[in-house]
């Protein structure tokens, strides 16, 4: 029996090496005044930024640019919206990692409003956005958040009362997403590692989610299949291999589509408070918690008896995938669950994913982190003590 489900819209997707060139035919359809939101250095390193500027100048298309080097804050969005509100922007193009994509989404949405973005953030403000925006094109240069396929922009304010909250509306899905793996070749190993672990976390959490469905299962499994063979090579001798970059980019795209439809679990339930309280990259939080959280979920699923069978089977299916096997007989479920955890632990070590303690998180901080954490759509219920142990084990 196939249970009923809903499935959210996705952008018009253009995927493939060299597909950035299609941007030059798309821009004139929207107008002659473009605002680019770009990363701190990746686009410049690739040489593509000069190419883009030269093309626009030769075709008499006006443009401005904003450079984003950190996760977007309310102040950053408000300041740039104020700067460009009266500039009659026809199109916004975000070219960069997840922070850039989210910043572009948020600026696109807030150029139509006069109030601070804080007024529209979930759990912070009291206003509801009507979805009006400036058309937006997302072009990722990393393979991580999957934000190029989602309807929310994550905005962070770091500090003792910090938060990571979403600006969300169905209309905020990018109008067009261009995924060109050639843009990702210049991405450094540390960023590729954190982004890759973030995307794999999203795929795994969506796959075992309590809200998963046959469609999200198929897409998430497909994404993990492509990423599993590429996540180590892309951070070493395969960094400049466009086919490996394409596999990682595909996995990240699938992670965005599946998280939007199946939701996520305890790892992202912790990533929000940790990222609000401490200045730590989102991908590092997910990457460092991935193996430990998976191990904990499996342990609790084993304790709940019959109710945990489906969750254990789904974890085992990914353990089998990472082992190169296609079938999970009943008697091998435990073996493949162990294999899954061992593989994720190996990735964490091989990719040199930092522990939480490196970013100033101490044992005395755990209670307030856990207090703000949420289970989201985790496949099994976890107690606060379970969650405290999880965080403590990654300090």
Molecular structure report:
The longest helix has 22 residues, at 282-303. The model has no long low-confidence stretch (mean pLDDT 96). The protein is of the alpha/beta class and 395 residues long. It has helices spanning 23-26, 42-46, 48-58, 74-84, 98-110, 189-208, 214-228, 242-262, 266-277, 282-303, 309-323, 333-350, 366-372, 384-392, and strands at 12-15, 33-39, 62-68, 91-96, 136-140, 152-157, 163-168, 176-179. Strand 6 (152-157) and strand 7 (163-168) form a beta hairpin. The strands form 2 sheets. It has a 6-stranded parallel sheet with strand order 1-8-5-4-2-3, with helices on both faces. Strands 6-7 form a two-stranded antiparallel sheet. The chain is built from 14 helices and 8 strands. It folds into 2 domains: 12-184, Rossmann fold; 189-392, Dehydroquinate synthase-like - alpha domain (Dehydroquinate synthase-like, alpha domain, Up-down Bundle). It is globular and about 65 Å long.
Total DSSP helices = 14
The helicity comes to: 40-55%
CATH topology of the largest domain: Dehydroquinate synthase-like, alpha domain
First-to-last CA distance: 43 Å
State which percent range the strand residues make up.
5-15%
Globally, the shape reads: globular
Overall SS class: alpha/beta
Poorly predicted regions are none
Secondary-structure element series: EHEHHEHEHEEEEHHHHHHHHH
Number of domains: 2
CATH architecture of the largest domain, by name, is Up-down Bundle
At the fourth CATH level, what is the homologous superfamily of the largest domain?
Dehydroquinate synthase-like - alpha domain
**What is the count of β-strands?**
8
As laid out across the biggest beta sheet, the strand order is 1-8-5-4-2-3
User: Main β-sheet: number of strands, strand sense, barrel status?
Assistant: 6 strands, parallel
